[in-house]
Amino acid sequence: MSQDILENAVASHPSPGEKHFPKFEATAEIETLADERITHYPVSKLSAVLPLLHIVQHHFGFISKEAITWVANKLEIEPIKVLSVVTFYPGFRQSAPGKFHYRICRTLSCAMAGSHELMDKICEITNIDRTQLSHHNPIVVSPCGNYSVEFAECLASCGSAPACLVNDDFHDNITPDKAQSLIDQYPA
User: Fold this and answer.
1) Checking phi first, is residue 13 left (phi over 0); if not, alpha (psi -120 to 50) or beta?
2) I need a surface site. Which of 28, 38, 121, 144 has the fewest CB within 10 A?
3) What contacts 79, CB < 8 A, 6 or more positions away?
4) Is the pLDDT score of 1 beyond 60?
5) pLDDT tier at 137 (50, 70, 90 boundaries)?
6) Contact in structure between 55 and 30 (CB atoms under 8 Å)
7) Is the pTM of this model over 0.70?
8) SS3 labels along 117-183
9) Which strand (E) or helix (H) includes residue 63?
10) pLDDT at position 182, please?
């Protein structure tokens, strides 16, 4: 029963970005990292869900159904408990982003400084169709799989808006007219 719920609830749909990330596999390195993190939570293994999910996303780019099942088995809990964490936190991705993932701040200061126009310009340049964007699927990937976009909540740079992250690189003062030069910094 639990596996049926998992199959129906996880938004892990195929993405052109998958070609840039290895398929989930619980390698010896991943097992060692997970075992070490679990030791930090001797009272309740359930508390290790977040650290294990971070390990998975860092190595594989997103949280797949297989990864959810692995984390659940590793912690001896039901997969639905892991899924509830994945779906609660917007920082966890349930499908592969592009090789270069653009998170553009949409809070007030950035919006007033042009972040929505910046999003439009990046999508135009990278051939991303944002009509596929939804609350359940906040990331849209370019057909080539090299680029993806999503809106982010405050990136804490209101005085130098609009701000965005490209993968984990922070950029500020990125007005729409600077979109092409931003993209050029990350050659596909």
Assistant:
1) beta
2) 28
3) 2, 3, 5, 6, 68, 69, 72
4) no
5) confident
6) yes
7) yes
8) HHHHHHHHHHCCCHHHCCCCCCCEECCCCCEEEEEECCCCCHHHCCCEEECCEEECCCCHHHHHHHH
9) none
10) 97
Is the C-alpha dihedral spanning 47, 48, 50, 51 positive or negative? positive
Q: Are 148 and 142 in contact (CB under 8 A)?
A: yes
167 with 100: CB under 8 angstroms? Answer: yes
Cis check for the bond before 162: say yes or no (omega within 30 of 0). yes
Place of tokens 């309740």: 44
| Matching residue, tokens 């939804």 | 134
Q: Which pLDDT tens digit goes with each residue over 69-125?
A: 999 999 999 999 999 999 888 889 998 999 999 999 999 999 999 999 999 999 999
Residue 11, both tokens: 């938004």
What does the alpha-carbon distance between residue 140 and residue 103 come to, in Å, rounded to a whole number?
11
